[in-house]
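Page 47, continued from p. 46.
Same chain as before, 193 aa.
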Amino acid sequence: MAGRNGVYGAGREALLDAVIELVGRDGLKSLSYRKVAEIARVDNTLISHHFGSKTALLEAAMDHAAQRTLEGTEFDRIFHGAIADNVLDAVRESPERQAFQYEMVLASRAIPALRPAAERLYGAYVQRMQAALAAAGYEADEAVARLVFAALDGLVFQRITIATEDQTRSALDQVERLLPAGRRVSPAADQTA
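Result:
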C-alpha cells in the first residue's frame, strides 16, 4: 500500500499523522494499529516495522506533533498583531494536534515511558516562547516564558474543550493587555527621554 501522498517511504510520517489525528479526535483509548494504518492508508505491519511498540509510536508522534508546531508559524506570529487572532487561528488550523498533545501529556502521568517526550514537548515550547517574546521586545527569562506559555496553553486547552471562541478571545485580549508591562524600552526611545 502507498502512503497518503502515494509514496511508500512516506509511511512513517503518514502513521505519525494518523496517530495525531486519531488520538486528537477520539482520545487515547481509541488507539489501535488497525485504525492508525487505515487512516494512514498503509499496511499495519509498518507500525511494528517503524516503531516496535505503541509506546514508541506515541513517543514519536509526540515529537512529530511538537516539530510540526515549532516548524509552523504559531509561536513566531503570536506577538505580531492581535494575539487573540493569532492564537485562535493556530487552534483552528490544528485542533487535533492540540488535543493529541494534551492527551499525551496527561497520559505521561500513567505511562512513565512517555514522560521524557512530554518534558521535551513542553521544554521546546517554553524555549520557543522565550525566543518569540524576546523577538517582540519583551524581557523574557525562562520564568516569564513559562508563565506566558502556561496562560496561552491553558486558554487553548479551554478553547478545544469547553470555552467558546468569544470567551477565549476575551481572555486572550486580557493577556495582551498585561504583556506591555514587561516590554523593554527600545534604545531609540531611551535617547528621546
